[in-house]
Amino acid sequence: MFKKVLIANRGEIALRIIRACRELQIPTVAIYSTADRDALHVRLADERVCIGPPAVADSYLNIPAIISAALSFGADAVHPGYGFLSENGDFAEACQRSGLTFIGPRVRNIRLMGDKPRARRIMEKAGVPVLSGTSAGITDVREAQAVAAQVGFPVLLKAAAGGGGRGMRIAHTANELATVFPVARDEAAAAFGDGALYVEKYLEHARHVEVQIVADQHRNVLHLGERECSVQRRYQKIIEEAPSPALNKRLRERMGAVAVKAAQAIGYTNVGTIEFLLDAQGHFYFIEMNTRVQVEHPVTEMVTGIDIVQAGICAAAGQPLPWRQRDIALSGHALECRIVAEDPQTLRPSPGTIRGYHAPGGFGVRVESGVAENSVVPVYYDSMIAKVITWGKTREEAIRRMRVALAEYHIGGIKTNIPLHQLILSDPDFVAGKIHTRYLEQFLARSAAARDASAMSEPISLRA
Ligand code: MV4
């Protein structure tokens, strides 16, 4: 096992990794920027080192500073968490070259899955279903129009160098494609330093369902079932759950087997996620693979009883998985609400200092938070500050428990999206599990319309 792990991250995931290391009796080193001097992850780790000023390029993305911190503190492994350098092949390679174990998959798997059209090509060859589209990045509008004519509109333009929705644009016609192509290209270039795009048939009203994979270095690959992640806003997931209300045992086994086959096809190791789109007929298609631990991993932990962060650390240390597929059993239902520091009116980030803090608790309630009383939420980083996860015997029980937990959650001094979560949790469509990738957008449009209508019919106050 490792002697010491450096955690190349911040916020709730840094705390999650510190706790997993502590259970494995591995000492930890936190890194921090000057904006995070008093942050919880810095206080909770065994050792800490400031690696630079607040800007991410100078701190949490600063590869030479992180490598030299790891070496000078005597760490022998680095955990990247999610975001930041977690899917950066150069960082994983720099770790390896310095004799540090990168807690994640091998460099070439990170690079392969980071090239989204290449991943499509390899998955198709391995017999994994993909949507029709291009299998290489394109930079020319006419090429995109030729492909779109082949696969039929609507199509989706996606960034070849990165997932998660940045650089993504829908086109319903050849004209619209010509208009959005340069917009998507510029956005991709700004976000990933590479403007190459690829075209995929656009599936409307599909669900976003992803399968959790865990693999050791001895050719054992298991799946831990799926997560339903259709409730997203601007491609940011906000509520996730396990299992998906849309799957039965048979479909779960089929999707799981395909996800395992996808991981085996590339000799994948460590934890990872295969993302699929699932249509109303039960057809599913590979869209991308995430080669890291994900934000929403706790819902899978709650229904399988498996500590995914710990599994990733043990797999990186060369230990064989202690389970077979038949040992993996799902129990009950789990929901996760991402708590984001944002103004519900403007949808802008709401940084500041937390004044007045009380987190919920009780049976079946789990809070993964990077903040507490007097915590500073800096402007420089992601505005997700916490996650509330509830477990119940049934989906209904998990939803009810989540409403109670969120009603108790008090985060003063900044604004959060807790009111939005409560709105969704009381929507009959959400409660019935009738969700798809356009669900939230349509729900918000409906609620805005309802608000406008009720404002118009407001009676004139006689007391005025
Ligand atoms: C799609 C799709 C429909 N068709 N690809 C969004 C982020 C990412 N990792 C992949 N995503 C999607 N890819 C094809 N070919 C739908 C989504 C999608 C989505 C799209 C619009 C609005 C909300 C969405 C939520 C989840 C997934």
What percentage of the residues does DSSP assign to strands (E)? 15-25%
Helical amount:
25-40%
CATH-defined superfamily of the largest domain: ATP-grasp fold, B domain
E-strand count: 20
Major sheet = 8 strands, antiparallel
Placed side by side, the strands forming the largest sheet appear as 13-12-9-10-11-14-19-17
Give the gist of this structure.
The chain is of the alpha+beta class and 464 residues long. It has 15 helices and 20 strands. It has 3 domains: 5-103, Rossmann fold (3-Layer(aba) Sandwich), CATH 3.40.50.20; 132-201, ATP-grasp fold, A domain (Dna Ligase, domain 1, 2-Layer Sandwich); 207-449, ATP-grasp fold, B domain (D-amino Acid Aminotransferase, Chain A, domain 1), CATH 3.30.470.20.
Secondary structure: elements and pairs:
Elements: E1 5-7, H1 11-23, E2 28-33, H2 40-44, E3 47-52, H3 63-72, E4 77-79, H4 89-97, E5 101-102, H5 107-114, H6 116-125, H7 141-151, E6 155-159, E7 169-171, H8 174-192, E8 197-201, E9 207-215, E10 221-233, E11 236-242, H9 249-265, E12 270-278, E13 284-290, H10 297-304, H11 308-316, E14 333-340, E15 352-353, E16 357-358, E17 365-369, E18 376-377, E19 384-392, H12 395-408, E20 410-411, H13 418-425, H14 428-431, H15 439-456
Parallel strand pairs: 1-2, 1-4, 2-3, 4-5
Antiparallel strand pairs: 6-7, 6-8, 9-10, 9-12, 10-11, 11-14, 12-13, 14-19, 15-18, 16-20, 17-19
Helix pairs in contact: 4-5, 7-8, 12-13
